[in-house]
Amino acid sequence: MTTRRSLLSLTAFLLGAAAALAACGGDDDAGIAGTGSDAGATGDAELATSAIEAGIGPAKGPVVACAPDESAPVPTTRCTTDVTSTTMPVCGVWTKVEIPGTVCGDGSQYKFFVNYSNTSNDLLVSFEPGGACWDYASCTGEGGTRGAANPNGIPDDHMSEYQYLNLLRRTADNPAQAYNMVFASYCTGDIHTGDKVATYTSDGGVDGGGPATITFNHKGHDNTVAMAAWIAQTFPTVPKLFVTGCSAGGAGALLNYPVLRSALGAQAQCGYLLDDSGPIFHSDGPSKLLDAKIRDAWNVDGVIAEIAGALPGTPSISVAALQADYGQVNTAIAEAYPKDRLAFTAYREDFNYSLYSYQSFYPGSTEAQIHAFFWQDLQELIPTYDAQPNLAFYIPYFRTDNCSHCVSIPPIGNAPLEPTNDNTVLGMPWQGSDIPEDMIDLKAYTTTLLDDTQPMRSYLQAVIPTEMFTPAESMQCLE
């Protein structure tokens, strides 16, 4: 049963945790994804666009369609409908999973959650959002510094909030409603991708004493590898594997896609990715300072080498090239899985993930400059997606909810300026994810993404000059 407390908690989780790591929309004019020459540009980057069908890109292709075989029976031993059972998991109920040796940032036991289906062998893996950290201030939240979610571990009732995310519901509003679901919790401050135990020392005295020191486990990669092995043991037949997440979870979904694909092997027949608001940008744009920071803080280059090693075949991009330019990971994954359908979504005016990418690296940046940095990075990423037949994007312009961050979450408002409306969250979860002029929202886009018989297309909504944050909303996002 829905409670007011649960929905308020969801709002708090997303407003606090959705600040993750890399992007924010711009103020220049946009056309569509494709070819042409009429788009505006910010900084040194230029994006060629044209006005094909008011922002709808041409059908992508050719892509060799994957044909999932759904004929295998669902194991009767997977779950039970008997809610009083103590010997089997209850179907449709979130169940905690703990694997020895997996840890959160503070060293406590890592845990993730599974929700079994008794009607499908398909599987959704969703990575939790929740910021990032790379020094004492951000990993402790000292002085209100932007940091990471759950630094002190994952509570057992974690899903009481996250069960309301659009793609985790067992309702007709969810294109993946019948899938088995795994929720990869987040407590390592490294977009589910680190592999380092770090020691951080405060810049000054703490609580009237001298400098303080903490040990922080950036072990998101190891946790995901262990989770992927558990998934492979638990789900022997997966006709459709759908990997997603928003913010830090979106970045984690993309970077860990090869980890899951490799662990499952032939068990997963067809693959789909929706990276929501966690873009992995090229490393020569404004994000380059962030990339340089996390390279050492999380041992990213070592993880990139492991990711590259998990890719099937002979990649056209070397490990050294991937380590030098993280944005090439998008291409490497698309080339390694040519039948898989891989997509990215974000609001062009995202004002949350972008703050992690730029604010501390460009001191004194204004809101307009933060937006411009994002647009510059985004303009370099879009042609990368245009170049691959199985990469596509869906980029609406703006909404006030959650600082215009994360397209796949319900419209939770911006409390306290705009309190959460329970009826809207529950009854209209995709409100604000639409591009009205193209008569599509993210639910419809996701439905198409999961349908191998449909062509993939990209969408880029044009600038709407009248849509922007009020000064009060901007200040709230900046806090």
Using brief descriptors, characterize the structure shown.
479 residues; alpha/beta; two-stranded antiparallel sheet
What does this entry look like structurally?
- This protein is an alpha/beta fold and 479 residues long.
- A hairpin with a 5-residue loop joins strand 1 and strand 2.
- Helix 4 runs parallel beside helix 6.
- Helix content is 29%, strand content 16%.
- The chain has one domain.
Structural class: alpha/beta
**Contiguous runs where pLDDT drops below 50 for at least 5 residues:** 1-8, 15-54
Oligomer: single chain
Measure the end-to-end span. 33 Å
Secondary-structure element pattern, one letter each:
HEEEHHEEEHEHHEHHHHEHHEHHEH
Number of strands: 11
Shape estimate? globular
**Count of helices?**
15
Number of domains: 1
